[in-house]
Amino acid sequence: MSKINLKNKRNMSMLMDFYELTMSNGYFKNGLKDKVVYFDVFFRKVPENGGFALMAGLEQVIEYIEGLKFDEDDIDYLRSKNCLDEEFLQYLSSFKFTGDIYAFEEGTPIFPNEPILTVKAPVIEAQLIETMILLTLNHQSLITTKSNRIVRAANGRGVMEFGARRSQGYDGAIYGARAAYIGGVIATATTLAGQVFGIPVSGTMAHSWVQLFEDEYTAFKTYAENYPDSSTFLVDTYSVLQSGVPNAIKVSKEVLEPMGCRLKGIRLDSGDMAYLSIKARKMLDEAGLTDCKIVASNSLDEYTITSLFNQGAKIDLFGVGERLVTSKAEPVFGGVYKLVAVENENMEPEARIKISENAEKVSNPGHKKVYRFFDKDSNKAICDVITLAHEVIDINKPYTIFDPVHIWKKKKLKNFYVKELQVPIFKNGEVVYTSPCLNDIRSYCLSQVNTLWEEVTRFENPHTFYVDLSKELWTLKDNMIKKYSNEE
Amino acid sequence: MSKINLKNKRNMSMLMDFYELTMSNGYFKNGLKDKVVYFDVFFRKVPENGGFALMAGLEQVIEYIEGLKFDEDDIDYLRSKNCLDEEFLQYLSSFKFTGDIYAFEEGTPIFPNEPILTVKAPVIEAQLIETMILLTLNHQSLITTKSNRIVRAANGRGVMEFGARRSQGYDGAIYGARAAYIGGVIATATTLAGQVFGIPVSGTMAHSWVQLFEDEYTAFKTYAENYPDSSTFLVDTYSVLQSGVPNAIKVSKEVLEPMGCRLKGIRLDSGDMAYLSIKARKMLDEAGLTDCKIVASNSLDEYTITSLFNQGAKIDLFGVGERLVTSKAEPVFGGVYKLVAVENENMEPEARIKISENAEKVSNPGHKKVYRFFDKDSNKAICDVITLAHEVIDINKPYTIFDPVHIWKKKKLKNFYVKELQVPIFKNGEVVYTSPCLNDIRSYCLSQVNTLWEEVTRFENPHTFYVDLSKELWTLKDNMIKKYSNEE
C-alpha cells in the first residue's frame, strides 16, 4: 500500500492562494516571522439543512504538511512574480512546519462554529497552509456528509459509489471515493481508489457490452459464460420488461443454472425505477429467481431513494454517481480558517476576533477546545461545549449550558461523561497521531452517527444539536464584540 | 514549463470504472480484442438552462492517453481481484492505445447531442479510456462554461478566480483554474495553477493580516510600506464604512501619496455589496482617490453580479470563488460515452443504437461528423449539422435543414460557409494535434462565443441553437428506432 501511495503522492506545496505568500513576505519583512498565532477551521452551516456534518480528510492534511517543501522550480517561479523579497524566498527554500495542530478525528459528527482543526504556529507557517487545509477538509467532509445521508436513506440496503466520470477532477473521484466510503458506501467503481485505499471495487457491464453483440441474449449469455459466479446484467439497453428481464431469465435458465450457478442481479439504469423494479421483481420471482438482486443506478440520491421506497420499489442495491461524488444539491462545504489568537510576551494566547457586517460571520475568539457531552445511560450525545483551552470539565458536578444568543435559556446537565474532540496531530512540527486504517475510520464514523438522537439525524427540519460556549468563552467574546461595536 | 508539467504529471491509467476491466476481460476472452468500434462523447443538456456550453479539457485527455500504461503494481492489484484472466493481465501489461480520436477544439461552443469527441479503436482500448475521457471533459467543460457565464455577466469588468479552498479536491482547484481561465477570467489566486499553466496570479491580504496587527490602520500602513505599488486593502474586518475605508484613505494620504504611489484598490468581502460599494466609492472619490478600484468577493456568481449592477453597485473587479470553481448552481456536466458503430468485415462502420426507456436518451447512431454553418456576411453561427462521416457539404448549393422531431419544419440555407468541428487528435495511436497555448485557447474561446447571436447567449430563456441531423443520418436513426421499437 505505501508503495502505491508514494507513486501517487504529489507535492502540493504550491497549491495555495497567492495572498498567503504576499502576506507571509510582509510578515517576514516586518519581523513577525516568529510570532506565534492560532488559527481555527470551522464552518457555519450544515449542507442541505442537515442536522450534522462529518469530519474527513485529516489523513491527507497530515500527508500534505509532512511533505511541505519548496524546491528550486517553485522558488524560481515565485521570484518571477517580482513582488517577494529574496530573503523571504531563501527562507521558503528551507521551509519546514514547526507548529502544533489539533483536530477532530475523521468520521466525527461536526457542527457549525466548532474549531474542527486548530493550528498553533509561527504566523508564516500557519498562513501558508491555509488553502490546502481548507480544500482538503472542505472536500472530503462534504462528500462524507453526503454519502452518509444517502446511506441512511437506503436504510440497510447497500450503496455503491459510481461517480468518477462526473466528478470535479481526478482527485474529486479518488478522494471522493475515500470520503464516500467513510460515510458508509460499501464499494466504489473507481479502480484507482480501490488500489490506493483498499476500498472494495465493483463493476460488471455497461450498455456498450450489450450493444457490441448481435443481440441482448448473446451479450448476457457471453457474460454469464465468462463470469458465472458474478453475473449482473444491465437490462435497459433496449426494453427492460420486453427484452432485458426476459433475456436475463433465459440466460439464467439456459447457462447459469445448468452450471450450478445463480443469477446475481439485474441493473436498471433508466426509466421509471419504481414501476420497472416492481414488475421485474415479479418476473424474476415467478421464474424462481427470488435471490436475484435488483440494482438501480440512475441519478439517485437520498431524496429519490426515499421516494422509491415510498412507492414500493423493489430495489436491493443502489449505484449512486454524480449526486454523491459532487454533492450535487449543495456542492460546497464552507469551512473557513480564521485567526483567533496571537501569542503575547508571556507566551499566552491573546484572543483576536473578526467582527464583519454579517452577524453570523463573527468568529469565536481565543485558543479553545471542544467537549462532547454524552448521557451516561444511553451513550447518546447531549451537546458540545466550546471552552477556552485551559478549562476543564468536572464530570462529577452538574454543568450548566446556556444558549449563546438567548442566554436566559439554560439547562443543567447531570449524569454525563465528556470526550475532548480535538486530539493532538502535530507537536513542534512532528506528527504525533497515527491515522486509523480506512475501515476503522468508517466504522468509527458509523458508530458516532449512532450516538446522535434521531431528531438530529432526520432530513426534514432536524433538531439543532446544541453547541454552546462556556461562560468564560462567552464573556470574552461578548466583551470583544462590545469593544469593536459602534457604541464605543 | 514542460519540466513543471512533468513534475505534476501522474499516471492516471488506473482511474477507471472497474466495469471497463470486467468488460474488457470478457472481450479478450471472446476473441473480440481487435474488433474496431466507434464511441461518441456527447451531453444532453446545457447546465443552468443556458444556450450553449464550452469544450475544455482536451489537452489533458491527450496527456492521459499518451501516458497510458499499467505497471507491475497495477497488474498485481488487478490480479488480486480474482476475476480477470492471466492472459488479459499480460495483454494489459503491454497495453498501448493504437486508435484514432477526433474532437472539437478547446474553447468551442458545444451543444447537446453533438459528438464532441469520437474514438475509433479496438474495443478494449476504446472501453478502457471511457472514464478518464468523460471525467476530464465533464469537469473542465463545466467550469469553462460557468466561468464564461460569470465573465459575460461582469460585462467588461475583470473577474478573478478565487475558489481553491472550496474546490472538490486538488485537481478541482488546479484544472478548475485552467478551465476558468479559458472561459475568460483574467487571473487566479491559485499559485500552482499559475506555475503549471502560466495563468496570471493575484492576491493581496486576508482578514488575518488585519487582525495580526494592533489595529487596522497599522495593518494597512505596514502593507502599504511593503507593497507601495500594489496595495489593495481588505476593508471589512471591523466595519467597512466606519473604519475600513477611512483607514484605507488615511494610509493612502499618509504613506502612499508621499511616496508618489496610488492606492490600487479596496476589497469588500461581506455585507451589502451594493450599498457598501456606493458609499465607499463616494468616500474614495471625495478623498481624490477616483482611480482606486473597488473589488468585491463574497459568494458571487452571474446572478449576484447582474443584481449588483442593477442596484447601481460601484464595483470594478470581482473575485469569484466557490460558485465558479464548483459551478455551484449545477455542479455536474452530463457528458456520456456511447457505442455508435462497430466495424464490419469490409472495415466499414456499422451503426449501433441505444434505445432506452427515456426518449431523450436515444443516441445518434453511426460514425459521424459535425459541420458548423456560418453566415458569410455576419460571420455569425447559424446552426450545426451532424452528418455521417462520409458526407460532404457543398457550400455552393443551398442546404436544407430540418427539425429532427418535427420534420416538416424546414429551412433552406444560402450564403454560408462551414467549418468541420471535429479535428484529428490521434491517428493509429499517435498524436497528430498540438494543443495551442492556454492564452490562444482562451482567445479562441472568447472569439467563438462572439460568433453566437445574443439570443443564444442570454441567460433567460435563450434561443435554442439548431443542431440538426443530415437527411441520411436522420433516416438511418429512424429506421433503427423502428427496428427496435415495440411495433415490430
Automatic annotation (TrEMBL), chains A, B:
Nicotinate/nicotinamide phosphoribosyltransferase domain: residues covered: 159-330
EC number of the protein: 6.3.4.21
An example Gene Ontology molecular-function term: nicotinate phosphoribosyltransferase activity
GO cellular component terms attached to this protein's record: cytosol
Domain (Nicotinate phosphoribosyltransferase N-terminal): residue spans on this chain: 14-138
PTM info: Transiently phosphorylated on a His residue during the reaction cycle. Phosphorylation strongly increases the affinity for substrates and increases the rate of nicotinate D-ribonucleotide production. Dephosphorylation regenerates the low-affinity form of the enzyme, leading to product release.
GO BP annotation list: NAD+ biosynthetic process via the salvage pathway
Reaction equation(s) it catalyzes: 5-phospho-alpha-D-ribose 1-diphosphate + nicotinate + ATP + H2O = nicotinate beta-D-ribonucleotide + ADP + phosphate + diphosphate
UniProt keyword annotations, A-Z: Glycosyltransferase, Ligase, Phosphoprotein, Pyridine nucleotide biosynthesis, Transferase
Record-linked InterPro entries: Aldolase_TIM, N/Namide_PRibTrfase, NAPRTase_C, NAPRTase_N, Nic_PRibTrfase-Fam, Nic_PRibTrfase_pncB, Nicotinate_pribotase-like_C
Top-rank taxon, per record: Bacteria
One Pfam assignment: NAPRTase_N
Pathway(s) where this gene product acts: Cofactor biosynthesis; NAD(+) biosynthesis; nicotinate D-ribonucleotide from nicotinate: step 1/1
Domain called Nicotinate phosphoribosyltransferase C-terminal: residue spans: 368-477
Signal peptide region: none
Family membership: Belongs to the NAPRTase family.
PANTHER family per UniProt: NICOTINATE PHOSPHORIBOSYLTRANSFERASE
Function: Catalyzes the first step in the biosynthesis of NAD from nicotinic acid, the ATP-dependent synthesis of beta-nicotinate D-ribonucleotide from nicotinate and 5-phospho-D-ribose 1-phosphate.
Name recorded for this polypeptide: Nicotinate phosphoribosyltransferase
Source organism per UniProt: Clostridium gasigenes
